[in-house]
Known about the structure:
With about 280 residues, the protein is α/β, with parallel strands linked by helices. It folds into 2 domains: about 30-220, 3-Layer(aba) Sandwich (Rossmann fold), CATH 3.40.50.300; about 225-280. About 45% of the residues lie in helices and about 15% in strands. It has 10 helices and 7 strands. A 7-stranded mixed sheet has the order 2-1-4-5-6-3-7. Helix 2 (about 65-75) crosses helix 3 (about 95-110), helix 6 (about 190-200) runs antiparallel to helix 7 and helix 8 crosses helix 10. The radius of gyration is 24 Å and the shape is globular.
Amino acid sequence: MPDTDIQPLLARVADALERLAPPQARSSEPGAADAFVWHTDDAWLEPVRNVSRVDIDLLKGIERQRDILLENTRRFAKGLPTNNALLWGARGMGKSSLVKAIHAKVNAETDGLLVLIEIHREDIQSLPRLLGMLRDDARRFVIFCDDLSFDGNDASYKSLKAVLEGGIEGRPANVAFYATSNRRHLMPRDMIENERSTAINPAEAVEEKVSMSDRFGLWLGFHACSQDIFFDIVKGYAAHFSLDIETDELCSRANEWSVTRGARSGRVAWQFIQDLAGELENPLN
């Protein structure tokens, strides 16, 4: 067979072998960055070079929650006893933003000792595997789950309960678990009521579900903000990004924006600022 005929054949064979070969395992090195996303399929910690977050000083109306969580996180970074934290309450009031902002502040104070790892809600059952990878590491890890909740016949909450407090090994001393949720008990009321109405022992069935929240020693509630706090948030953003607009006009337009959205929150304020900055041709950086 001429060489000109063999070369294309060999190329096709090589391509087929590459497709059949297992993909090269990706290394999970917690020292590669100070923030990661956990991928359970291949047990991979994906480094996040630029975390999407706002400066902690821009988070208005949640000063009490900020101070409590900041102190809890500082103690954890120092190796002192600390609690897992559940941030629950109104949408858009800065729950996840606060976790990310506090991580940045404490990490800067401790020369990169604190690592933030985001785990997706659907990957909760892989927590024991992740903890096994982190247990002997010298750094401190905050595992963060945004919008944590359980519905229907979802039984993965039992895995989380065991990891947080009830398992044989328990939570490693170098790991804390922070979660945000719109629900205080991590499940809808109708789910709790259904458990009460269908169980042989209603009280025990409800207790099994509701006790999930009890595994978090620190509960921080976030509530819808007043108009004054909403304006404070908007004015803080405008000053930080040097938006050229009079205060009265800023508040008037922010109020109109909130009315069209039917809500006042930190998220709505940020969306307004993005729209205003685009109109003023002012980059938000």
